[in-house]
Amino acid sequence: MIASYAWQGHREAMLKLGPKEGPLVLILPPLFEEGNRTRRLLVEVMRGLASEGIASALPDLPGTNDSPLATAHARFDDWKGALASLPRAVATVAVRGGALLDNAVAATFHWRLVPESGVRLLRDMLRATAVAAKARSSDLEAVARMQPTALAGNRLHHDLFNALEAARPGADGTIRTVRIEGDIGNADAFLPGMPLWRRAEPDHDPALAEAVAADIVQWMTTCGVR
């Protein structure tokens, strides 16, 4: 169902699936356009969790999707504050840049798919913008530090830009890191599938969605939180 949550005098949208009672998993999507490209994947993962009796919630962050706050006014602390205001979850499921925010949630268990640092996400956006504008990414970076600027179709406040430059996935709690087969980097498991966040347009990978949901269920069972 489409629900909402209160934050600083207004309401942000939140998709919820699964039983009304029992453990709740908070889904933290990738940031910016990567979130659009993986939306269907996350919804299918939520459906997979619901079939196992696990409820999940996918909130809109302030300044994203249909938020009443303009993207250019959103700040990193806004995102953390909004997540801290959500109903208590037993675990988080974060994809890519979502892992920069999971420690803002009052949960001990954190499942991450290809977690990424903020500075690497910004570099990807700067490169995409530079290609489109036929400019040097270093020039765009200097502008972005000073005023809201459009990066890969998103207007970022300079405070958000600066905060993302320094943001890294947290190390607190029980963490499971999962990557896609063929990816580099340390991981607890590798799943077969396509890196949908790299696609030019939104796409879907049913096998990856099924594998992700199954891994989360098994992990939660092992951790004793379902």
Q: Main attributes?
A:
226 residues; alpha/beta; 8-stranded mixed β-sheet; two-stranded antiparallel sheet; 10 strands; globular
Task: Report what the structure shows.
The protein has 7 helices and 10 strands. It has 226 residues and is of the alpha/beta class. An 8-stranded mixed sheet has the order 1-2-4-3-5-6-9-10. Strands 7-8 form a two-stranded antiparallel ribbon. Helix 2 packs across helix 7 (206-223), helix 4 crosses helix 5 and helix 4 (118-133) packs across helix 6. The model has no long low-confidence stretch (mean pLDDT 89). A hairpin with a 2-residue loop joins strand 7 and strand 8.
Tell me the layout of helices and strands.
Blueprint: E1 2-7, E2 10-17, E3 24-28, H1 33-37, H2 39-50, E4 55-59, H3 76-84, E5 91-95, E6 109-113, H4 118-133, H5 137-144, E7 149-151, E8 154-156, H6 158-166, E9 174-180, E10 189-191, H7 206-223
Parallel strand pairs: 3-4, 3-5, 5-6, 6-9, 9-10
Antiparallel strand pairs: 1-2, 2-4, 7-8
Helix pairs in contact: 2-7, 4-5, 4-6
Largest sheet: 8 strands, mixed
Low-pLDDT segments: none
Tell me the series of helices and strands, N- to C-terminal: EEEHHEHEEHHEEHEEH
Mean pLDDT: 89
Rg, Å, rounded: 17 Å
